[in-house]
UniProtKB/TrEMBL annotation:
Stretches assigned to coiled coil: none
Native source organism of the sequence: Nonomuraea monospora
Protein name, per record: STAS domain-containing protein
Gene3D superfamilies: STAS domain
Domain STAS: 4-113
Superkingdom of source: Bacteria
SUPFAM superfamilies referenced in this protein's UniProt entry, alphabetically: SpoIIaa-like
Length: 128
């Protein structure tokens, strides 16, 4: 039976999930469930390391777009890292890449998510 494997780590305001395997119609529900269970707070930024995902189907793309929508609703973002050729092609073919935060490396995605997770200083307040 096809399956995906996952691992995760937590950083301040960021949940990082590594995904491995084919993300298709038979495994998209596993991806959705893992994202839902793993994210500690709805406002946490989410980084998905897709370097070990050779295939991304439309069902899995819908899961990513839903995760992106949920993150945006809570003031956070979804960051996709290290896409292989097939998943990258699907994102570009469906014009989904333009609305998502796609990064060449996991490190770049984590840096961007950590920057975005930092509180914005309120102007006019004196430094303490």
């Amino acid at each position: 039976m096809p399956s995906l494997t996952f691992s995760s780590q937590y950083l301040p305001g960021v949940t990082v999930i590594a995904v491995a395997g084919r993300a298709d119609i038979t495994t998209a529900c596993l991806l959705d469930d893992y994202i839902s269970r793993t994210r500690r707070h709805p406002g946490d930024h989410l980084v998905l390391d897709l370097s070990e995902v050779p295939y991304l189907g439309e069902s899995a793309l819908h899961v990513l777009l839903h995760a992106h929508t949920v993150a945006r609703h809570h003031g956070a973002g979804l960051h996709l890292a290290s896409l292989q050729r097939g998943p990258a092609h699907l994102l570009h073919a469906t014009e989904s890449a333009s609305g998502l935060n796609v990064h060449d490396t996991l490190e770049a995605a984590i840096r961007a998510a950590l920057r975005a997770a930092q509180p914005v200083p309120v102007s006019g307040q004196a430094a303490g």
